[in-house]
Structures are given as C-alpha cells and as structure tokens.
Write a structure and sequence with these properties.
single chain; 434 Repressor (Amino-terminal Domain); 2 domains; 7 helices
C-alpha cells in the first residue's frame, strides 16, 4: 500500500490515472465532475504537474475502479499501455475467462516455439 506519495513519480501517477480514465471512456471533465474537482486539476494531475491531495487521490482511484495496489512501487517500474490493458482485463475477468485466456496464451507460446 502506498502511504507516502512523495516517493512516487508524479508523471507515472498521472499516466496511470489518464490511461484508466481513457480505458473507461471518460473525459477529464467527466472525471472531474465525479470527484468534485475542476477539469484543470485533473489535467495537471494527469500531466504530472501536480500531485493530488490524498483525499482527491482516493476519490479519483475510486471513481476509476482502481485501488492503491495499482500504484505500488513494483507496479510502477515497467508501465506500458499493453501491460496495463492486459492487467485491466485480468483484474476484471471471471475464473472461467482467466482459464480461457491462459489456455490461449499457452497455445500461442507453444505454436511460436514450434515455428522456430
């Protein structure tokens, strides 16, 4: 759990918030309305200019269906849109869906090995 946001790069926090907002199809204005902020505040947070207050941070991640572990140091070291999209899919999948994804990935990997 993140307890001291000063140890996390503002740019990465903003990027993760922006990626999730876009993934959910929200505009900055819509997110701002949900959390009681001005659209410019969301823009400044997403662009890494400002840190949100802790209260605003919690409100933002709740509105975006995120949690504190999404911002854990180990989750911030290698951020990429593809990795984030995959993690989002995994987090929001049923057990049956996860098993199907795993089976497909294993089949693809096996097929790739046989191509060599």
């Amino acid at each position: 759990m993140v307890t001291n946001m000063s140890h996390i790069d503002k740019t990465i926090i903003g990027l993760k918030i922006k990626q999730q907002r876009k993934r959910l199809g929200l505009t900055q204005f819509e997110l701002a309305e949900k959390v009681g902020l001005h659209e410019k505040q969301i823009s400044r947070i997403e662009s890494g200019i400002n840190y949100p207050t802790f209260e605003n941070f919690v409100n933002i991640i709740n509105a975006l269906n995120m949690n504190m572990t999404d911002f854990a140091i180990e989750n911030l070291s290698e951020t990429s849109p593809v990795k984030d999209d995959l993690l989002f899919i995994i987090k929001n999948s049923t057990s049956d869906e996860l098993q199907l994804y795993l089976d497909v990935i294993k089949a693809i990997k096996t097929n790739k090995k046989s191509d060599k």
